[in-house]
Amino acid sequence: LYAFPRLDPNVYEIHNDEKLVQDLLLQEKILVVQGTGFNWPHHDHLRIVTLPWARDLAVAIERFGNFLASYAQ
Q: How far apart are the C-alpha atoms of 69 and 37, rounded to whole Å?
C-alpha cells in the first residue's frame, strides 16, 4: 500500500522535491519518492510505502517530522 501525502506549501517551502527526498535519505536514511516522479505537477507531494510494521512507520514518521522542522531550501 502507498500514501501520497501533501506537504502544505504555506508551511514547507519546497522548491525542489527531488532534493528534499535526497536530503531525507542522506540525513535520516528514510526512502520516499518525490511526487514529480509520478508526473505530479507540484513539489508538494511524496509517495510513501506503508507496508512496514506500524512501529517502524511511527519511528520513521517521527524522524521525518523532526527533519522537516529544521529543513529549508
A: 24
Distances (CA, A) of 47 to 42, 44: 13, 11
SS3 42: coil
The neighbouring-strand residues paired with 47 are 33
Mean pLDDT of successive 10-residue segments in the chain (73 residues)?
96 96 98 98 97 95 96 91
26: left (phi over 0), alpha (psi -120 to 50) or beta: alpha
Q: Is 43 exposed, middle or buried (0-12, 13-18, 19+ CB in 10 A)?
A: buried
pLDDT of residue 8: 97
This prediction has a pTM of: 0.91
